[in-house]
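Now for one specimen:
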Amino acid sequence: MAVLPAVVAPEQLPRANARLAGTLTVTDQFIARPLGGVLFAAAVALPFLLGAAGLAASGLLLLTLSGRFRVVRAEARTTSLGAEIAEGVRWLWRHRLLRTLALTLGFLDITVVAQNAIMVLYAEERLGLHAATYGVFIATYGVGGVLGSLSAGRVIALLGDGRVLRLAIVIEAAVPAAMALTRSPFVAGAVFVVFGAHAVVWGVLLTSLRQELTPERLRGRVQSAFTVLDEGVAAPGALLGGVIASRFGLTAPFWVGAVTGALLIPVVWDTFSARNVAEARQAARQQAG
């Protein structure tokens, strides 16, 4: 993600990120997960051996890349790793739009992980699904992801960045509310399709803005800060989902997600305006010279 802006033009970033997201969705949802189950059934060690081989192959592919992607600094200087990380975090914290996006992503991800932590129980006890139909239910998210990757560029161009950002928060509030209210696996599957498409479109725009607005020398560090917020909430989010569900019922984590999204709407609405996005882009261009 940090290297992509060096490969494609800024106006092509949404399309390029959409293709990456589509590739990830297809390989993860429709290839890797079923293949993992088949391999595990054959021998417990096979998924791990294939994973190790895949990482080795990825490393070899990276070594074949031609060109130089290291950022050329205006002046040579020696700094510690900690100082470089701190520089990236400070820059991100001072950038109003990206800071708001990062914090919003963190809050929402906690609630999404909390919901995913009890999804098997929700599907079995509330939707009445069994092992085979549960797999089909989860696959609907992947279907939505593929649709989102195919349409992300057009949706963003049609609605504009500000509208997509605002609509994303509305969807983040509406989807868990719909999941909490329904007992129909068909309705829940349709909601999952919508959420899968939304997740890719929102992710494509967020990634493209981050790549475009971050100075070249800081892209890797700012990407890492986003990743810490995105992935770092997995453990506390899963624990939160289990505790809330055990005390208040299986729909409680979904209601927490709906309330969290609803509370975020008035907080981020002004920041996620088309005007603010345009001003952030203009500032980034001026800084780049």
About this structure: The chain has one domain: 4-35+82-288. The mean pLDDT is 89. The chain is about 80% helix and 0% strand.
